[in-house]
Amino acid sequence: MRAEPASQGRRCRSPRSSTVRVGRTYPHAPKPEGNTHTRGFVGDSVELDAIEPNQLRALVEAVIQLHLPRDQFAALKAAEPSERKLIAGLVAMIPAGGAL
Question: pTM of the entire structure?
Answer without folding.
Answer: 0.50
